[in-house]
Design brief:
The chain is an alpha+beta fold. The longest helix is centred in the first third of the chain and has 24 residues. It comes from Nocardia mangyaensis.
Length: 493
């Protein structure tokens, strides 16, 4: 799978960390949250460094559809149901600030952004109630949403709710501009530098990496699912994988950003190019490592797109990973209650372009002593989190099931010959659960035990990776860490 946004992108490679350094704040992760936070802190006069394990934008942000919208599917009613409209109002205020800041940045740095409506639509009659509920709750908090009976699109719909003047961008173009902007402020961005350890020492926080150490007064962990997760955020997040595809379509492409109210998710937007508009279609999501066949999920999405857009020619297909908070609201703030030297940002539930920038505004405000008026809505240790305990119990019961079933299967699986090309399986070598795969005509053998919390990994047949069904850690066939809360690779056998 290839990331569509990187096809023609010109982003300079940046060097890894070469020596031990000391700064005011170290930011871990060079996506929308990390780079926006770094820029805001640098603008306030702080000395900042950014650590990125791979390349700028290579994980969540660079894989997104980059919809900048305050109408977010049916998130409004989910938040209001759990927390009430007063909390939803502050969540909307945060997202509006994120939208405004990001669009102002794009305008100031010549990054193209298209102002288009966002629409949540009903795929069938059973989703009409959700459309009505989203309309009513968004109107209740002051958004000028409109209820639609009909949509002018090629596929069946049963009405929708629309919010005008939202936006869409090329996320890699945004990240390239952010990286250049932070470097112009004297911030060092170190790529291919994986943070591996964190400890407090002499009044500072020391982050160890595979290339050296960074000492700082404060740390921002902006890595999707937080690494160094002493606050147990992994137990309050559900890791979700979804799929995206870009098509050259002979007919008209919808001009609005669209997303379905129900499952399976269907998300659409257009991307203007010099030769016409490209159709982007996303959806068919699932919890990481918990489906029979990821390739089947991809096929379902491609079949849907080619059914309703006849003659569509596939240009690229790729995938993205997002984290859904069990309490419905993102977590932005201290890693542990009562401490301020390590901050985290996670749980954007696929709406990271607005929430991610809002998180950066909240983090920078907290670090500089100028908090945002709505920042408490993201507080990770808010009293309202008690209400999420039932959802957390359900999510972690599923984790326990996958932990036990994975080990039972691994213990009973006997070794076989080399898997076929593109295939992988878990088997037992002596007393060790072992992951065996063949990719690019090379058979690799690594431990099947995820170093995070010892779950047994599963083969992802769409992306040819090892995925942990417990909390979403993912590994290349050779065991290299790709993403998730884990910081160590699968050992080779």
């Amino acid at each position: 799978m290839t990331l569509f946004w990187f096809t023609d992108a010109e982003i300079p490679a940046r060097s890894p960390l070469a020596d031990d350094i000391a700064v005011d704040t170290v930011v871990i992760g060079a996506g929308i949250v990390g780079l926006s936070t770094a820029l805001l802190l640098a603008q306030s006069g702080r000395e900042v460094a950014v650590l990125e394990a791979r390349r700028v934008g290579s994980v969540a942000t660079g894989a997104s559809t980059a919809k900048i919208s305050v109408l977010q599917g049916t998130r409004g009613q989910a938040i209001a149901h759990r927390h009430g409209t007063a909390v939803l109002s502050r969540y909307v205020a945060a997202n509006l600030d994120g939208l405004d800041w990001l669009l102002e940045f794009c305008a100031d740095h010549d990054v193209a952004a298209q102002r288009v409506p966002a629409i949540t639509f009903a795929q069938n009659a059973g989703e009409r109630d959700a459309i009505r509920a989203e309309y009513e709750v968004t109107r209740a908090v002051g958004l000028p949403t409109e209820l639609l009976d009909d949509l002018d699109v090629a596929f069946p719909t049963h009405g929708g709710v629309r919010l005008r003047e939202q936006a869409q961008v090329d996320p890699v173009a945004v990240l390239a501009a952010l990286a250049a902007a932070v470097e112009a402020r004297g911030v060092s961005v170190f790529e291919s530098t994986r943070a591996q350890g964190l400890r407090r020492r002499g009044g500072t926080v020391e982050v160890s990496t595979d290339h050296g150490k960074v000492s700082a007064g404060s740390v921002v962990v902006a890595t999707g699912s937080p690494i160094f997760d002493r606050g147990g955020f992994f137990a309050r997040l559900v890791a979700q994988r979804s799929y995206l595809a870009a098509f050259d379509v002979p007919g008209p492409v919808p001009s609005e950003m669209l997303i379905s109210a129900g499952q399976p998710t269907r998300s659409l937007r257009r991307h203007p190019t010099g030769t016409g508009a490209v159709l982007l279609v996303g959806g068919s999501g699932h919890e990481v490592g918990r489906v029979e066949s990821e390739a089947g999920q991809v096929a379902e999405l491609l079949d849907w797109a080619q059914r309703w857009f006849p003659g569509a020619r596939l240009l690229d297909r790729w995938s993205a990973q997002d984290y859904h908070p069990i309490g419905e609201l993102p977590y932005v703030g201290p890693l542990l209650p009562g401490t301020d030297d390590v901050q985290v940002a996670t749980g954007f539930a696929k709406w990271g372009m607005t929430n991610g920038v809002a998180a950066a505004l909240a983090l920078a405000g907290r670090i500089t002593g100028q908090p945002r008026s709505w920042a408490d809505v993201y507080e990770p240790w808010r009293p309202g989190e008690v209400k999420a305990l039932m959802a957390g119990a359900q999510a972690n019961a599923a984790v326990a099931r996958y932990l036990s079933s994975g080990w039972v299967h691994a213990v009973g699986a006997r070794p076989g010959g080399a898997p076929a090309e593109g295939c992988g399986r878990v088997e037992r070598h002596g007393v060790h659960p072992t992951a065996v795969s063949t990719v690019g005509a090379e058979t690799r053998v690594v431990s099947a035990v995820c170093p995070h919390l010892r779950g047994i990994v599963a083969w992802n047949d769409a992306e040819q990776t090892w995925d942990c069904p417990l909390h979403g850690s993912r590994f290349a066939p050779d065991g290299t860490v790709l993403e998730g809360p884990v910081t160590q690779p699968l050992p080779r056998r």
